[in-house]
Amino acid sequence: MGAAGLIIIGVILFGMIAGGIAQLVLGVSKVSTMDWSLAFFSGIIGSFVGGILHGLITQHRFVIEPSGLIFSIIGAIVVTALWTWFKKSRASH
C-alpha cells in the first residue's frame, strides 16, 4: 500500500471519528449503537461544512475546503443534526 492508500484510510478514519463524536455530542446514539455509516458521511461532509464555516469566520471569505479536527467536528454536528431532523420529519408524515 502506497502513501495515497494510507491517506485515504486516514481520511476515512478521521471522518468516522468526527462523525462519531458528533453523534455522541447530540445524543443521537451511544458508542454501542453508533451508526457508523452516518458517522462516516457526516464526518466527511462535515469537514467541508467546517471548512466553509472556518473560512467565513476567520478569513471573511467563502471557501470550500476540508478543515481540521475542531471545525470537522462542528461541521459533523451540523450535518448530523440536519440529517436527524430530516429523518424525523419524514417519519412523521
Overall description:
The longest helix has 24 residues, at 3-26. The chain has 3 helices and no strands. It has helices at residues 3-26, 36-59, 69-91. The protein starts with a helix and ends with a helix. α1 crosses α2. The chain has one domain (3-91). The chain has 93 residues and is an all-alpha fold. The model has no long low-confidence stretch (mean pLDDT 86). It is globular, with a radius of gyration of 14 Å. 76% of the residues lie in helices and 0% in strands.
Topology:
Elements: H1 3-26, H2 36-59, H3 69-91
Helix pairs in contact: 1-2, 1-3, 2-3
Counting DSSP H or I runs of 4 or more residues, the number of helices is 3
Low-confidence stretches: none
Distance N to C terminus? 48 Å
Structure classification: mainly alpha
Rg is 14 Å
Main sheet? none
Q: What is the H-and-E element order?
A: HHH
Work out the count of structural domains: 1
Average of the residue pLDDT scores: 86
Give the overall silhouette. globular
> Which percent range fits the helix content?
over 70%
- Number of E strands: 0
Strand content: under 5%
